[in-house]
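Example record

Each entry pairs one chain with its bound ligand, adenosine-5'-triphosphate.
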Amino acid sequence: MIRVTALTRTYGDLTAVDQVSFEIGTGEIVGLLGHNGAGKTTIMKMLTGYLEPTGGSIEIDGLDIRTDREAVQQRIGYLPENDPLYSEMTVLDYLDYAATLHGVPDAERDDWIREAISRTELTSRAMDTIGTLSRGFRQRVGVAQAILHHPRLLILDEPTNGLDPTQVLQMRNLIRSLSAQATVILSTHILQEVQAICDRILIIHNGQKVLDATMDELLAGKHLLVAIDAGPEHALDLLNSVRGVVAAEPVSWPAAQAGPGHRYALELGENHDPAEAAPVVAGLAATQGWKLYALQPERRDLEQIFSEISAPGGRS
Ligand code: ATP
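Structure tokens for the complex follow.
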């Protein structure tokens, strides 16, 4: 669906985006993550054809944005960071205007506008003047104009920025439902946001891509956590002998998850995963007559991963 190769953008002496490459398949929800000033908006503006790259290439649906800009733009819906809505227009008039800008065929215009209004739950506000709407409703109008022309790729820059918690949940549900018809790229610096809706994340730091991984790959740790009633003097050697375990060590329960028993973290070797080792550990507990209180793959914390990868601060 999208192939970005060595994408670069400079502003004078500043390299805002530096040789970034990635590919995104149809239907994925990808989070573009990074500190303020990392280069996310610059990447999104280049993907949508609003900003000329200094170097590199962007292909969307097999079309090169340099040579087929208009055809590419018809396939894209874009919610800019600070959506420039026309505050004196009504929602309906604005969407009608957006339909013209997007080149929606006359025969489809009314149906598609109605559909965009209904999907963003704006029906009761369709006749309201945009300037009188709350921030959350204005954000929905921005999304409605972005999805109006049935784009195959949706690019949403900070879609939940400034929304209250209820509106955030509604926006997440909307984005998930939109991904049934379109590939979605969204930028944010809110980690929970990414964890809640994205299949995959790209982390940008000082203009460079520093991580590209699926959420499952990222959050799956290399440890299997086990809680049993046997102390280290009885259990450690046996746990260390489980196939695939390279090191077993006692760990303490985090305060938030206090529970019974002695707890161990079993570090697994390169080609071994927790799903293989877990039944073996359960079998060992049964044969040794240990009480097994917990047996679970480690889940890593996105905040921890993010701070390991990108030092705080960044440019702005
Ligand atoms: P934020 O999360 O704050 O929106 P971002 O990751 O989207 O940040 P960008 O807006 O892409 O970051 O900015 C990347 C870098 O490029 C920043 O250092 C920014 O100051 C700089 N920059 C962006 N636009 C311009 C411009 N028009 N002229 C000069 N520098 C710019």
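Residues 104 and 302 are 40 Å apart (CA to CA).
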